[in-house]
Amino acid sequence: MTTVGIIGAGGISGVHIAGWLQLGVDVVVHSMAGAPELVARHGGQVAASLHDLLARCDVVDICTPTYTHRALVEAAAAAGRDVICEKPFALTVEDTEAMIAACAAAGVGLYPAHVVRFFPEHAVVHDAVERGTLGTLAVQRYDRQGGMPVAPWFLDEELSGGIIMDLMIHDIDFARWNAGPVASLRAVRSVPDGSGTVAAQVVLTHASGSVSSIGGVWSARPVAFRTRFEVAGTGGVLRYDSATNPATWVNGAVVGADGYAPKAAIGESPYLTELREFLTAFQGGPQPRVTAADGLQAVRLADAARRSLTLGEAVTVPAEQPADQPTELEEAR
Amino acid sequence: MKVALMSFAHTHALGYARLLAAMPDVELLTSDPDAATRPPGESGGATLAAELGVDYVDTYDELLAWGPDAVVVCSENTRHRAHVEAAAAAGAAVLCEKPLATSVADAEAMVAACATAGVPLMVAFPVRFSPAFADLREQHRAGTIGKVHAITGTNNGQVPAARAWFTDPDLAGGGAMTDHTVHLADLVDALLDGVPAVRVHATANNLLHPDAAVETAGIVTVTYADGTNLTIDCSWSRPASHSIWGGLTMSVVSDAGLIDVDPFAPSVSGWSETAANELALGYGPNLDESLLATFLSAVRTGATPQPDGHVGIRTTAIVEAAYRSWRERRVVEVNPAGRPAAATA
């Protein structure tokens, strides 16, 4: 029986623990706060300490704030455990490289939880791109809009990396997955004011010449979460808007204690799909659709976007290493 | 009122001709001498005028000698300047198809020529007459949506197939960035009340139409003096076989939340068995009609119609900067920077 050790008990932990329990694995949780409550809601057991968690599990699932990832990945690797780490891997390229090196040295697996690749509407589009349905990609457009995150660390640029590193990295990764390596990029962000609303725009120029426009919003107003995209190539165009694609649409609400709200309109949770794919890989199955190298490149691009903000200038991105060759990093260590 | 239509080069000319011909108080005369230089198969000249049922003369000299009160210029982009200057010299009020010009120098010369002649110059940006946009602008002015934090816009369409000049850099001045950046630049100019654009970044490609001598996809980011960022997808990314030409959308991040304006959304949709394609029956107002009504009313009253030549200069400056940015692969300053909004009054 596999045991997964979840570190952290925040928002993403609740989604992951539900997925793990559905997959039939045992779960232990360690967190600085909230672990007993999380376990009470979903199931599993509370670990007495990080040390206790690492001793009891086969796979570590790191669901903590970004700035804590490196130390926890290194601890998990030192304990010889395979690791799943919430995105972004880390705030800096240096930390991410250290995490990958630690796992490589320990001979354990490491995957970044870029869950957007597992969302079914994104997955069907990527499949279509892979099959050649859209021909040569020329232009992609992504929007990701929601309310401001509740946990305060997200809003602290030093701790989360801000909206580009935390939110827009999803679409940066997905655009790169579709159109290939990025050659240069430019980012702009709204001027901070008392309102708290943050809006950023990132434009990628891929090595192929293809271009991508990515918008992200953390709105101070309570707004419904919305994603939309359009992917256009020589073979046609695909578009999606979460606001116009409800399988169930409710006008009016609340009968009974919790009120009616559609809960599983699109079938399996993409988080469950993601965790199953990682677990299967740890057990000797095929490589998952997102790898540590992808997670590192996503951090490189988000980091370059943050530099672009600081510099007020477009930033060139160094060419990617071919994925099937050992990286300089691996050779150096 | 005597209204002259110079050139059928831009296909919008056909719509203007039909609308003007139907106005009881307008006498319309047209001329399209450059039709002969178009590739075989492209419509134009006296034949097209006959099809439209409008009067026609063979030369611009005859057209302007007729003494029009107003001239609508629908020629190829790089010919706008000569035609606007000729119309102004003939003492006519001018409505020029967008973009006003393909360089700031040309746009400024055209504004100066009209000022010298004492005639109004208006640029054909019909989308700002959409009720959805007009409402947004009014509510922004009234303070209902608070501060605008960021804007993204799309103006996608098919690669213009009816006229080859759209993809001829000598006649068009450029491709999708020339054609499809200016509508959104105009809307944001109106929304922000003339706050000048200060910095531009652009990237583009011709992957969708590798044989085209111009860019066919592009993304332009404009930063305005008040810090507002606007990113425009100006791509000709709508497939040629699509039943709908394209569209324009604008998403505004404001203190009031997220506001999406889609002027062309009002339509009944379905499927055509005969065309084996989507069927969309737009039922929104005819924006060209509002544009022409505004222009002709200004000609009658002597008022300055908006969007005027200064809007034309500001939007042209953004496109000019976009090409400079794309060429030099860096963020560039907009020239002329800091032109005050008061200059439009």
What is the topological layout?
The complex is a heterodimer of chains A (333) and B (345).
Chain A: E1 3-7, H1 11-22, E2 26-30, H2 35-42, E3 45-46, H3 50-56, E4 59-62, H4 69-78, E5 82-86, H5 93-106, E6 110-113, H6 120-131, E7 137-147, H7 157-160, H8 162-179, E8 182-189, E9 198-206, E10 211-219, E11 226-233, E12 236-241, H9 270-282, H10 292-311, E13 315-316, H11 328-332
Parallel strand pairs in A: 1-2, 1-4, 2-3, 4-5, 5-6, 7-10
Antiparallel strand pairs in A: 7-11, 8-9, 8-13, 9-10, 11-12
Chain B: E1 2-6, H1 12-21, E2 27-31, H2 45-52, E3 55-56, H3 60-65, E4 70-73, H4 80-89, E5 93-97, H5 104-117, E6 121-124, H6 131-142, E7 148-157, H7 169-172, H8 176-180, H9 182-191, E8 197-205, E9 217-224, E10 229-233, E11 246-254, E12 257-261, E13 267-272, E14 277-282, H10 287-301, H11 309-328, E15 332-333
Which characteristics define this entry?
heterodimer, A: 333 residues, Dihydrodipicolinate Reductase, domain 2, 7-stranded mixed beta sheet, 6-stranded parallel beta sheet, 13 strands, disordered C terminus, B: 345 residues, alpha/beta, Rossmann fold, 2 domains, 15 strands
Provide structural commentary.
The complex is a heterodimer of chains A (333) and B (345). Chain A has 333 residues and is α/β, with parallel strands linked by helices. Chain A has two domains: 3-115, NAD(P)-binding Rossmann-like Domain (Rossmann fold, 3-Layer(aba) Sandwich), CATH 3.40.50; 117-270 and 291-316, Dihydrodipicolinate Reductase, domain 2 (2-Layer Sandwich). Helices cover 37% and strands 23% of the residues of chain A. Chain A is built from eleven helices and 13 strands. In chain A, helix 4 (69-78) runs parallel beside helix 5 (93-106). Chain B has two domains: 2-124, NAD(P)-binding Rossmann-like Domain (Rossmann fold); 127-344, Dihydrodipicolinate Reductase, domain 2. Chain B is built from eleven helices and 15 strands. Chain B is globular. The longest helix of chain B has 20 residues, at 309-328. Chain B has helices at residues 12-21, 45-52, 60-65, 80-89, 104-117, 131-142, 169-172, 176-180, 182-191, 287-301, 309-328; strands at residues 2-6, 27-31, 55-56, 70-73, 93-97, 121-124, 148-157, 197-205, 217-224, 229-233, 246-254, 257-261, 267-272, 277-282, 332-333. Chain B has 345 residues and is α/β, with parallel strands linked by helices. The A-B interface holds A 136-139, 141, 143, 145, 184, 186, 188-191, 193, 195, 197-201, 203, 205, 208-213, 215, 217, 219-221, 223, 226, 230, 232-234, 236-237, 312-314 and B 146-147, 149-150, 152, 154, 156, 199, 201, 203-205, 207-208, 216-219, 221, 223, 227-229, 231, 233, 235, 237-239, 251, 253, 255-258, 329-331.
